[in-house]
Design brief:
Blueprint lengths: L2 E14 L2 E14 L3 E5 L6 H8 L7 E6 L2 E2 L7 E5 L10 H12 L5 H14 L15 H13 L5 E5 L7 H17 L3 E5 L3 H7 L2 E5 L6 E6 L14 H17 L9
Parallel strand pairs: 3-8, 3-9, 6-7, 7-8
Antiparallel strand pairs: 1-2, 1-4, 4-5, 9-10
The chain binds adenosine-5'-triphosphate and magnesium ion.
């Protein structure tokens, strides 16, 4: 089957006053349709840069980024994005925040249909009854749920998330992981998730990509062979434990503290 996302031999350096700063140096990532790809790597290695490439917000010096059989050369409307701090508009209520991408991508869609779509998503993430609230009236976890709904309301080709759960406390974060899996079960989507949290990567991912230290290359790809209907408890079982072990070792290598150099 064709890959939905195909990143081939991507190299990129930022031009800085001090000269070129190589950030990506041989990035190869393949993500199939409806697959969830988690990406981990040392701080500052180039993970957010990778999200900008997939969204078409920048072009690499070398290599190719393909999305749905088309080469990405300019910003894509068909990409949904979610970040650590949900950027919800305070002058709109939650429902109208979730609807926003539809206004841009599907301007001819009747308001009635937009509302129905947004309400259905808000219900899936447990936010029914909060449609009329302002973002500041919600907790951080609830805001993040709303921002996830907004990111997928227009059925984007891919949902790109850059540490969306990073600012949440542990329990809220685990709740959101489960919500994310429940959401995917009801409405499959393709996702790229950048995270610092190895447990998060194993729980949410179908594959976990470990990037090397800067300039980043694809250092290791872990196939997460856990059942699709997993719950948080699975993280305490042997198979997940072994995967976490492998990832920890790979991160040490990426940070240059491993026993052996990566290949
Ligand atoms: N627009 C830019 N111009 C110059 N340098 C940049 C730019 N954006 C990022 N960088 C540098 O490129 C490197 C990679 O940045 P990037 O934000 O992609 O890393 P990251 O892996 O997301 O980091 P973190 O784990 O801290 O989120 C960093 O050294 C950063 O300072
Ligand atoms: Mg980043």
């Amino acid at each position: 089957m064709d890959n939905l996302i195909d990143i081939k031999g991507v190299r990129h350096a930022y031009r800085t006053k001090a000269g070129p700063l190589p950030v990506l140096d041989g990035l190869d990532i393949q993500v199939a349709e409806s697959e969830f790809c988690a990406v981990v790597g040392p701080s500052g290695c180039g993970k957010s840069t990778l999200t900008r490439l997939v969204a078409g917000l920048m072009r690499p010096d070398e290599g190719e980024v393909w999305l749905h059989g088309k080469r990405v050369t300019s910003p894509r409307k068909t990409v949904g994005m979610a970040f650590q701090n949900p950027v919800l508009l305070e002058w709109r209520n939650i429902l109208d925040n979730v609807i926003l991408p539809l206004e841009i991508v599907a301007p001819s869609m009747p308001r009635r249909d937009r509302v129905a779509r947004a309400e259905a998503l808000l219900e899936m993430v447990g936010l029914s009854g909060f449609e009329g609230k302002r973002p500041s009236e919600l907790s951080g976890g609830m805001r993040q749920r709303a921002s996830l709904c907004r990111a997928i309301v227009h059925k984007p080709d891919v949902l790109i998330m850059d540490e969306p759960f990073g600012a949440l406390d542990n329990f809220t974060r685990e709740d959101l992981w489960q919500t994310m899996r429940d959401l995917r079960a009801k409405e499959p989507f393709t996702a790229v998730l950048i995270t610092h949290d190895l447990r998060e990567s194993v729980f949410l991912g179908d594959q976990v990509i470990v990037l090397s230290g800067r300039p980043a290359r694809t250092q290791y790809v872990l196939d997460v062979t856990l059942p699709d209907d997993r719950t948080i408890d699975i993280l305490y079982e042997r198979e997940a434990g072994e995967m976490l072990h492998i990832l920890r070792d790979q991160i040490k290598i990426a940070q240059g503290r491993g026993a052996a150099e990566a290949q």
